[in-house]
Amino acid sequence: MDKGKMLLVSLGQGAGNIVDGLISKNPRYNGLFINSSLFDIKPLKNADMSKNVYLYPGTDGSGRDRNKSKEMILDNVNAIGTLLSKYLLTEVIVVFTTMAGGTGSGAIKTFIQIAKKVLPKAKINVVAILPSLKEDELSFKNTLECWNDINSIMDLINDVKFVDNNKRNTYREINNEVIESLDLAYNITGIHSEGSIDNRDSLRINTAEGSGLVLKLYDGLMDAKTAVDLAIKNSVFVQPDTYDCDYLGINLKIDGYDPYEVSKLFEVYRSTYITYNNKNNIVVLGGCETPTEAIKLIKMALDDKKKRKLSRNKRRSFIIDLNSDSKDKKEEIDLSNSEFDDLLEDNFVV
């Protein structure tokens, strides 16, 4: 894809880290950072307050409140629309958000509607980050609501990639893997005498309607199937329920795995594109069905949290008897005594 005609938009803090990393990898990407907190923007190397940052005025974070986030973006529709109108040559908008938070999770639906209105010819992709199953009830609730928001406007979206936070030990590891994988996918182009992938082919693969997947194949394994199986296991992206796709892009090292053996592992309904390079083994699927198993696990985790909370018997007080060994115990005050009745009367005023 033509990086100069791509606009990477981060909604919120977690998304900002990924967009910042992609621009560091390739300065040709256009980036736009939208946030409700200045503190989230400050650490980002490629966020310039005078050029590519929109900070909701008069705000200081959303506190993971999706409703507050929705109100903030609705209050700034015209300003964000004006900002997007500066990117009239954009072919692809890639919107990044964490689903468990507030600022991005609550704003993504409205932002996509604004973007489609202002730049109707641009294709819109989404990269949405699911929480790990170790997170709290609010994270799961926000995620499910965000999932429904995204699915309710799927007709406005081309490609959706979901990131699985359970696949690495830290957020940094997840972010680095997402950044590397997406950059390889967007740069899947190659020229070779036995097959080439140009920018238009890459655009077609990366913006196919449906769910997308990026797989990195390791060198030196027994065969193509073993390499693909391991790539699927290690991928940080949520896996589709089936690996049927509309488009398949394969860019492998010269004299490495046989690309035709790789292509046989997937059911491709439209076109397969093959080329070669000297550095990486990358496979990109475009136009898969929306994955459902990962979100079902989030729903199950939320239900389990709620069930345990309902069964919880929370003790708030525990009185220690300091005179348990003494025969003489002081008489406790009995508030049921009639002489204290006036304490609860409305006319008892000091």
From TrEMBL:
InterPro entries to which the protein is assigned, alphabetical:
Tubulin/FtsZ_GTPase_sf, Tubulin_FtsZ_GTPase
State the protein's name: Cell division protein FtsZ
GO biological process annotations for this chain's record? cell division
An annotated Gene Ontology molecular function:
GTP binding
Question: Sorted alphabetically, which keywords does the UniProt record give?
Answer: Cell cycle, Cell division
Q: Which SUPFAM superfamilies match?
A: Tubulin nucleotide-binding domain-like
Q: Which residues form the Tubulin/FtsZ GTPase domain?
A: 58-157
**Top-level taxonomy:** Bacteria, Bacillati, Bacillota, Clostridia, Eubacteriales
